[in-house]
Amino acid sequence: MLRLAIQKSGRLSEDSLNLIRECGISFLAASNKLKTEATNFPLEILYLRDDDIPGYVQDGVADLGIVGQNVLVEAGFPELEVEGLGFSKCRLSLAVPRAAAYDSIHSLQGVSIATSYPKILGDYLAGQGVQAHLHTISGSVEIAPSIGLAEAICDIVSSGSTLLGNGLREVETVFRSEAVLIANQNLNAEKKELLEQLMFRMQAVRRARRNKYIILNAPVAALDAVKQLLPGIKSPTITPLAEEGWVSVQSVVNEDDFWHITSQLKAVGAEGILVLPIEKMIS
Ligand SMILES: Nc1ncnc2c1ncn2[C@@H]1O[C@H](COP(=O)(O)OP(=O)(O)OP(=O)(O)O)[C@@H](O)[C@H]1O
Ligand SMILES: O=P(O)(O)OC[C@H]1O[C@H](OP(=O)(O)OP(=O)(O)O)[C@H](O)[C@@H]1O
Ligand SMILES: [Mg+2]
Question: Which residues are in the CB-under-5-Å shell of ion ligand 3?
Answer without folding.
Answer: 50-51
